[in-house]
């Protein structure tokens, strides 16, 4: 699933390059914003390096993370929906990030002129939608311990995808708690539990032992 997603995204980026589309490389540090919820949506981004997240803020001031982004992911596609749309979420760099920014009009023009590009791009958006639905189901039905395990695995996607271990970007337990939808104290409890079970290890950086954590997640280990 991860390989197919990045393969499709690479095809999209390859079309950008071949068509000579106007694009700009942007570099952000941890906690910088690509864009904020409510901003005018005039471009699409492709993350080249680093990790980012999409979050939404309710009218009552409650924030929720709705997606974790890895290298190769596209985001900001709401800009293609209608003329002068607004951003529906905030895109924030989790660590140092590099991304390519492509204007809305350039992408729309290419979709009209290149049927193959349009097909690839729509397949990517459909798979992205399916993944978002899976995230929503996970948020509703999984325990916070299971959601934390899945979040760690998602964050490890870009690091040697075929290797048994992966380092995730530097991240605080407060940020993990926000992503999972629980408290920092619960994240601390689960992280200590994961480490005691040999699912992760960490000093200054968290190392994920993929096969063990995946097996634990599939076995539906209990937590609250």
User: Which spans have pLDDT < 50 for at least 5 consecutive residues?
Assistant: 1-5
CATH homologous superfamily of the largest domain, by name? Jelly Rolls
Report the biggest beta sheet as strand number plus sense, adding barrel if it closes.
Answer: 4 strands, antiparallel
CATH fold annotation of the largest domain: Jelly Rolls
Termini separation: 28 Å
CATH architecture of the largest domain: Sandwich
Structure description:
With 224 residues, the chain is α+β, with helices and mostly antiparallel strands. The protein has two domains: 2-139, Jelly Rolls, CATH 2.60.120.10; 142-218, Arc Repressor Mutant, subunit A (Orthogonal Bundle), CATH 1.10.10. Helix content is 43%, strand content 23%. The chain contains seven helices and eleven strands. The protein has helices spanning 2-18, 104-113, 115-141, 144-155, 173-180, 184-196, 210-218; strands at 23-28, 33-35, 43-49, 52-57, 63-69, 74-75, 90-93, 97-103, 165-167, 200-202, 206-209. It has a four-stranded antiparallel beta sheet. Strand 10 (200-202) and strand 11 (206-209) form a beta hairpin. Helix 2 (104-113) packs across helix 3 (115-141). The longest helix has 27 residues, at 115-141. The chain is globular and about 55 Å long.
């Amino acid at each position: 699933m991860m390989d197919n997603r990045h393969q499709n995204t690479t095809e999209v980026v390859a079309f950008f390059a071949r068509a000579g589309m106007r694009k700009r490389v942007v570099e952000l540090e941890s906690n910088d914003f690509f864009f904020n919820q409510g901003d005018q949506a005039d471009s699409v981004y492709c993350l080249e390096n680093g990790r980012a997240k999409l979050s939404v803020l309710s009218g009552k001031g409650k924030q929720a993370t709705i997606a974790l982004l890895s290298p190769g992911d596209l985001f900001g596609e709401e800009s293609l929906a209608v003329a002068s749309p607004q951003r529906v979420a905030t895109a924030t760099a989790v660590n140092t990030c590099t991304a390519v920014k492509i204007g809305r009009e350039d992408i729309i023009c290419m979709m009209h002129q290149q049927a193959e590009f349009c097909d690839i791009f729509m397949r990517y958006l459909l798979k992205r939608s399916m993944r978002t639905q899976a995230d929503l189901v996970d948020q509703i039905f999984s325990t916070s311990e299971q959601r934390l395990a899945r979040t760690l695995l998602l964050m490890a996607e870009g690091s040697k995808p075929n290797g048994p271990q992966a380092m995730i970007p530097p991240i605080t337990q407060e940020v993990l708690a926000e992503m999972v939808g629980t408290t920092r104290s619960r994240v601390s409890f689960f992280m200590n539990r994961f480490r005691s079970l040999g699912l992760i290890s960490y000093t200054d950086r968290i190392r994920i032992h993929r096969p063990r954590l995946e097996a634990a997640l599939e076995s539906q280990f209990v937590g609250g």
